[in-house]
Amino acid sequence: MPRTPTPFSARRLAANRANAARSTGPRTPEGKARSSQNARKHGFCAASLAVIRLEELDAVARLKADLVAAYQPVNSQELFAIERIALAQQALLRSATLETGLLTACLNETLLRDAGLPCAVADELTLDIEVTKAQNRALALAVGLQHAVRRSNSFALFLRYQAQAERLYRRAVEEFDRLRALHTELPNEPIIEPEPQQTAPLTLPENEPAPEPAAPAGCRLPLSCPP
Asked: Looking at the predicted structure, is the pLDDT value of residue 28 above 90?
């Protein structure tokens, strides 16, 4: 028959808190960063995660170093969550770069196709107002984007990639917060002596006198009470 676990007593809970307060773990960011590598079974090669000739080889490593300084992971699992955050941040930066490239391609295609004059702004919009180059470029960009959307679904795929990068980032941060809360709520339990199990008090039947206390050694009680 399985044993039913007994709840922690107030004494044991107090000992848990005292043990956590006396923890001798690393307190400096450098010490925490070193201890977070303990029992680590996987590697993180930042150079292999960079896009060739588009990103610097240590871009992800710098993101990770900044996150380690900010979050200060204390074990390998928290460090793994930090690496996930770094990769998600890199994906967000890539989505921004990709968006810039897509819009630049739209603008460039429009200008090349229409020889620098993609389309004229309606007279009702300009009247006597001078149209700036920036406004003409914005119009060319919009026209190029319309052509690109009709021709392929590349921009729709980009939006899906961007949304996925944002979801990965949120999940990575939530996972680190879960691990940090788990580490805080479950400190190492101290080694204490087991407490004796409490037994039920002895109860006597009703209307029955309690037994007389035993006489001290060497003392005889009379057989009967004097009148």
From this structure: no
